[in-house]
Amino acid sequence: MNVLVLGGTGAMGLHLTQLLLEKGIVTFVTSRKHRKPDNNLQYIQGDAHNIDFLKNILESNKWDAVVDFMVYNTLTFKERIDLLLNNTKQYIFLSSARIYADSKQPITESSPRLLDVSDDTDYLATDEYALTKARQEDILYNSGYNNWTIIRPYITYSENRLQLGVFEKECWLYRTLHGRTIVFSEDMCKKTTTLTYGLDVSKGIVAVIGNEKALGETFHITTSESKTWGEILAHYLYLLDKHLGYKPKVLLQKLNQFMELRTDCSKYQVLYDRLFHRQFDNSKIDLYVDTNNFINIDEGLKKCLEGFLRNPQFKEISWGQQARMDKTCNEKTPLSEIQGLKQKLKYLVRRYL
């Protein structure tokens, strides 16, 4: 088999690539950076958002499957869908379980989507992530093709990605390791959620690649285990206490205060996902992979956090966000910690004005 992975260098993509190689599948991965090939693994350097680049690689080989981790706006996706579906036996589209509306029952693949049931006209007028993914699913449903499979992962963590509510490690964990206070939502602490290790999600994806029964089907791939965000925060604090020798500081805010830290666009991630109770019924994907064998949340987070702490490497820090949190907590970040004059000024403006 020849499999093309578009944008496969993130939390799931790295694990997926390794699993494909273990099965002896010749794997090609697009990357903006130059990377050295390794046996059955080939890298194609370029921007998969560029339609000329995409057209060239799709038409250069006979692809048994294309796994698409790219993030498109709806119009861009619509412009590319025929190109993608015409040049592979199976197109695997990474959607998101954030598309689901609130549910009192464990969520199945046929549970209502926000796009279909929300009456928030301001929200529906946006192309917010959950709406974007649902609209792109509809493009596939209405494409006239059947050689696609939709995957809906939920919150997926890995050795280089660790989330707390709506915050990535570059926000909450960065603050912790620099002795500053974690700011979190009191309301969110009470909500049930689930986090799934990227390796386990990738096992589910590999299980449907090349499987004709998965064509024209939609699957969410998550662990069946659920915890409250408060329990997840407590587990992080316990692990960090062992590593640092002291328990990190936490400020829990009421929702209206917490929302002041969010931008107009990202507030919907709070309102229409993280404040929902999330529990999933995995019986559909269990026909292909046993989710009961997925690593449990506490053990998985421990493995990944401890792995990260052995050699902490953060991506870009939002100094505007850090400034707002410092202001809330009456804390200061030394300017020597902030790289570049522009970022220093952004921090100072948000922190003191």
Tell me about this structure.
By secondary structure, this protein is an alpha/beta fold. It has one domain: NAD(P)-binding Rossmann-like Domain (Rossmann fold, 3-Layer(aba) Sandwich), CATH 3.40.50. The protein is 38% helix and 15% strand. The protein has 14 helices and 13 strands. It has a 7-stranded parallel β-sheet with strand order 3-2-1-4-5-6-11, covered by helices on one side. A two-stranded parallel ribbon has the order 7-10. A two-stranded parallel sheet has the order 8-13. Strand 4, helix 3 and strand 5 form a beta-alpha-beta unit. Helix 1 crosses helix 8, helix 3 packs parallel to helix 6 and helix 13 runs parallel beside helix 14. The longest helix has 16 residues. The protein is globular and about 60 Å long. It starts with a strand and ends with a helix. The model has no long low-confidence stretch (mean pLDDT 95).
Name a few traits of the molecule.
single chain, 353 residues, 7-stranded parallel β-sheet, 14 helices, alpha/beta, 15% strand, Rossmann fold
Report a brief summary of the structure:
Helices cover 38% and strands 15% of the residues.
CATH structural class: Alpha Beta
* DSSP strand count: 13
Number of domains: 1
CATH superfamily descriptor: NAD(P)-binding Rossmann-like Domain
Which structural class do the helices and strands define? alpha/beta
How much of the residues is beta strand, in percent? Answer: 15-25%
